[in-house]
Amino acid sequence: SFGREVKDLFIYPRDLQISWGNDERYWKWHWLLLKSQDYKDIEVPELLQVCWLEIKGKFNMSQLTPHARYQVVFVVMMLESRFGWEHPVTLTLGMPNGSSTSRRSWELKNMPVNEWKELVVGSFTASARGDVTFSLMGDDKTHWKKRLVVKYVEVRPAYV
Q1: In terms of domain of life, where is this protein from (predicted)?
Q2: Which residue of 13, 65, 67, 128 is surrounded by the most CB atoms within 10 Å?
Q3: CA 6 to CA 155: how far, in whole Å?
């Protein structure tokens, strides 16, 4: 509706829960300068190798414009010599009322290298309060995965 600005919300990797994220055998952290209005320095994790991939986060509805429609998007990059993405990842969005939606995505398998790409987790309408959770899971526990970089998760207006 008119007359109100619907803001984006960015959740940076250090504010995500990344399984084994602080173990340098599995993840390597790099500094990245984001070319935005404020030229923000962020740390981004590069996946060296894991077979259990789990990246989770949350935010509170109070940070959003009530009744506006939003979508949650992981912004990621595949690097050269990537490996292990033949299996889908599961993207899940959980609402404060306990409901959740999940979708399986094969997008990482065919993603071009060295380009930031978006993985849409799902969309929702903002309500008054409560935490929204989201996750990216590589739930085939026997296959090693390599060479994924996570830039941030964006919660942005979903214009239908």
Answers
A1: Eukaryota
A2: 13
A3: 11
pLDDT mean values, one per 10 residues, the chain (160 residues): 71 95 94 72 91 94 91 95 90 95 93 94 91 91 88 89
Q: Hey, CA dihedral for 29, 155, 83, 26, is it positive or negative?
A: positive
CA 131 to CA 109: how far, in whole Å? 31
How far apart are the C-alpha atoms of 110 and 99, rounded to whole Å? 30
Token reading at 124: 């929702």
pLDDT of the residue at 160: 56
Q: Are 48 and 25 in contact (CB under 8 A)?
A: yes
Contact 58, 131 (CB under 8 A): yes
Q: Which helix (H) or strand (E) holds 120?
A: strand 117-125
Strand partners, 18: 55
What pTM was estimated for this model as a whole?
0.90
Full DSSP string of 11-74: E-GGGSEETTTT-TTTEEEEEEEE-STT-EEEEEEEE--BSSEEEEEEEEGGGS-TT-EEEEEE
